[in-house]
């Protein structure tokens, strides 16, 4: 048998908020790098010959960034010296991320690491990630664009799984533009620790009052021998094709582990005894990929999304996630309004970007969040995590305010004439609804605006004199005047409000429209079209029918005659579905034994029951329906539909009061849409648009996905856009506990299965927030389009979520 090699890469896994306070973990990693500098200095000076060969890889650039901000010039000089010497390596990933992060922010963070290593003039082109179970397809493109040619994935199959149905193998990950990244589809990020190479490892359980004795070291080394030889024997039994195997190793078996050069003592001992059979080499990340690329290997190429099994953490914190989503929209709007960065404050933008990145980092709470939800530390770290979203929103809001002020936005002022500027921030022309809010103390044409006494207002284009169709509603922000306005790409238009006195409409006096009890329940007849009622609405674009016991019963695209609802739907659109899995063991064990299912085999499922349907507002632009449901697990579940008459659009708002529950639970919102028998389902994630179940790496997750702005159902000519504003998770297929389908040619059928929005879950047994209770409001929008590509349809979802901007404006 030929000589074999075990390549070890020593790193410290960053898990920000899992083992300690977020800011404390930052300090840990700064001190870890400082200690590595001391270790390497001692080695170089000959003080520690037994540690010769020790090397350390910074798992991500964030660690380096924290060190550079909290170290002396001398320490920084020493760090860069050892980086250039090849004893310290830098992975060019920024952090271990969820797919929640925005594409622009992700690219900016990759650029930080690239600039730094380029400044050192070193050949660094590799990244590693640990723990997480997937990446958006756009992540591969982002890496490629920043010179990251190699990715070492050290995933954790706890409630997840590696792609390709097999780990410890290389593959080329091809991006949607044809670039390729070499991936080592690796094992757990502390596999090397299983070999007990670190003296007095906590896995050996050989602590004694006298410390780590020579006898104890010999006993542990026997275990090391047994495990390493057994590991290579297992590889041979599984027909592992290579004479080398890489493994990651930490100083101790914990996240955020300190570096430990004493592993070199055991490595030298091993190589003296067994190096002719199996040699152990401690290498850096980039060294491993240099070696790998020199091998004559047949490496397969795969393209597609690598859906993250750990994306569902965002569903355990729906409130801060909604705040985060709002911050992302403001971030994109700010960049569209100020692409050159001349109007806002760069320091606010940078602060927002950092907090956006930190909230999207993969850690979703302290490790005992489920076992001890009352614990002060659990709640302390939960609020700190939420603070990233809150602070990001605050910073980007201030930045956007600066931009809008430069564009002419006026603050509150007395006796201001009712002029407004409407801005299309998008790169395409739009015909959309803009909104103006008038407070109770504000005037229109020198009169206070009260619909009861002063009639209505109209919206006038100051350039052309055109009157835009409008409608008034009462809201918590004041009188809401919504109007339809066409705008060219990035166009700005000034409008004003003008008061109009209207006469009472008495057109039903001599006709069979309505009885003396004022109930309009007569069906359409010749000469009379009853198009709006509690039973639905019909416009030029769609026909919506409401069933009085279930909710939305049918939705027809009148332009094509196609039904927009899935033929095998189990629930009405937006009629909530609640699940709870009874605890038969304990709160943590019950969740652990679910495996890759996000529910137990005995999950109790309840569907919302419709109790009332109301038409709460009907006007020239839109009609508002309120569907009141009863749903187990909630005190309130109300669906508000705003069906537009002048656009092929329906806005949906869910209002939920959620109960507290310690047991594992899920809340789903059915999105059982389709566009006929040839319908294809496309979704948008960070930097990519793809078809779930089809355009994915083999062996990846097909049960759920974390989206950016939404999805679309299209037959290639016509499409239904579903903009998902606040709740990024969706799940695909049956809600029943089931054997999990990993992506393969057979899973293409899942692309045609039912879709559910998944706003809430508390599934994970360690660090998910267990308490989902509270009041929530979630928004969705449906929009019909024709002759648009999937990318253009998805772009519409982005435009719907971001909207157009209206600011108070005083013409100069």
From TrEMBL:
Domain Glycoside hydrolase family 38 N-terminal: 6-302
GO molecular function: alpha-mannosidase activity; carbohydrate binding
The protein's name in its UniProt record: Glycoside hydrolase family 38 N-terminal domain-containing protein
Chain ranges passing through the membrane: none
Taxonomic superkingdom: Bacteria
BP terms from Gene Ontology: mannose metabolic process
SUPFAM superfamilies on file: Galactose mutarotase-like (SSF74650), Glycoside hydrolase/deacetylase (SSF88713)
Pfam families: Glyco_hydro_38N
InterPro entries on file: Gal_mutarotase_sf_dom, Glyco_hydro/deAcase_b/a-brl, Glyco_hydro_38_N, Glyco_hydro_38_N_sf
Gene3D superfamilies: Glycoside hydrolase 38, N terminal domain (3.20.110.10)
